Amino acid sequence: MLPADRSGYFGAYGGRFIPETLSLALAELETAYDEARVDPAFQARLEDLLRNYVGRRTPLYFAERLTVHTGGARIYLKREDLNHTGAHKINNAIGQALLAKRLGKARIIAETGAGQHGVATATACALLGLPCRVFMGEVDVARQRPNVQRMELLGASVIPVDSGTRTLKDAINAALRQWVSDVRDTHYLVGSVVGPDPFPRMVRDLQSVIGRETRAQCLEALGRLPDLVVACVGGGSNAIGMFHPLLDDPIALVGVEAAGHGIETARHAATLTRGRPGVLHGARTILLQDEDGQIQEAHSISAGLDYPGVGPEHAHLRDMGRVRYESITDAEALAAFRLLARLEGIVPALESAHAVAFALQAASALPPDRVVVVNLSGRGDKDLDHVIALGAEARS
Amino acid sequence: MSMRAMFEATRGRGEIALIPYVTAGYPSIEASLDLVDRAAEAGADAVEIGLPFSDPVADGPTIQFASHQALERGFRTRVFLDAITARRPASPLILMTYLNPLLALGPSACAKLAAAGFRALVVPDLPEEEAASIGGEAEPAGIDLVLLAAPTSSPERLRRIGAASRGFVYVVGVVGTTGARREADPALPGILDRVRPTTALPLVAGFGLSEPPHIRAIASHADGAIVGSRLVEAIRHGEDFSALIRSFKQATRRP
After folding, report:
1. Of A203, B13, B33, B136, whose CB has the highest number of CB atoms within 10 Å?
2. Could you give the ipTM of this predicted complex?
């Protein structure tokens, strides 16, 4: 059942479609990662940092008021928002920064959409003493201002990207180009389960701590596994981290993409619902593209889901029918954002609010003896300005 | 003319091949095809035509700009292929395209390109280990799938690239993206000399060659040179394109 990934493919998806200049760096990275993942010293160092620096393990919290409000299945939240830096992204950033040290790389580059991965990377680099540059689309720089300031405070340089869509897609392009030039001494710390092999499986492994903890916590607290597990999907790292350790269990898994203004419009980021196979950012996957293979602009209220591709393993899990992919509109996500704040005192990231919104719909249709787990992948402080501005717009 | 015949002819004249690059659809489809003809008249031995792509990760700012402009002006692959098929430029034609626009042409992509007059195909995001399926389609269509070698390629990879490439080996001259550079990389002759024993095919250098002395510096190490971003800049700023081609061509004489 588990996708075989020795060759860097997940079924028909994945691979290593990159300029030849990067081939050496990817081969080195693959070797170093395959050694590190079975090296007890490396794993002990990673576990120590995850526990004592990141603050793992994160709680699995029973959202009682949300459950009563919904009137259906019991809703639990996996509190990745309580990680240091406020999102799941740090799990991967710490792991790859340690790996970069092991590889002897002197510098780090990264892309960021919402800024959560940029902040996590800047943090890991501050911790390990690595110089860091973060590429970020100009649109995202404007709508995620607090994260830009945090990255700069942490010592990173934020490089605004003014090409193409000026969002996450073009931040990745800019980071890839920089990597082609600096490949000899620089590690590209990719933030999601996208990109050429070995990134999708390496980032998945580093994020799988989410699903392993959730599984153990359900057994401890409930004496059983959940019935449904929900996570939002942009590139898909929090979702794959949650899903991967649960693939062999009898649990329904749902990935939630951003429907933006609606999947019937041109303004959405529902790649797996509306996309077709193609090759972008080093991997064969499902993409939003026109008939000429030009990549289309994605839209979502959340900068972290605003991506016209998706991790190749998600494409494979969809084809196998193991994970179902649904979508939630901007308006539905905003309503869930506000509801969670009012009922539970938790302000979720707009990305995570998509998963909450779908879970509310699903839970309301299930009986009270069922258990739904939502991966609350990040906190929403970064989104406050944006959401407040939207509220003012709606009232005016 | 086949790629092989073109390289034989230039070698016979004691020169290396000059291969200018133009972006299809920049400044317009017809104007870009005019440039193909003008390049040939001014002495180009073949022409590389780049298909615009929304996400050109191997390209620097100049070719990104030209691609973006072409797409903004409504470039469509089918319209371009119809136009070039109708005009049939006399030069041997090489298509530079990222993989996704090529895949979007469908299962008969290579046959369509051959019908449009292309003799070779360069795909910068298609490394050797992923090349077999496209290569299997190109060969029966009479198209050479050209693989790229880089300064960072290991000796073992260079051997595999040299064996699997067709038509010529495209030797990437810099650790970086495309783009005009004031100085040629002094390491380039050495890179060409490392690739030479791995293959019987001609070697064509590209990336960063932007002045006639850059060409002269490799004329005894390579069999051809691609000049791209410098020409796109010339088109953008209204410089004399033909005069520039002639100045590059004069630098292709083997010492």
Report:
1. A203
2. 0.96
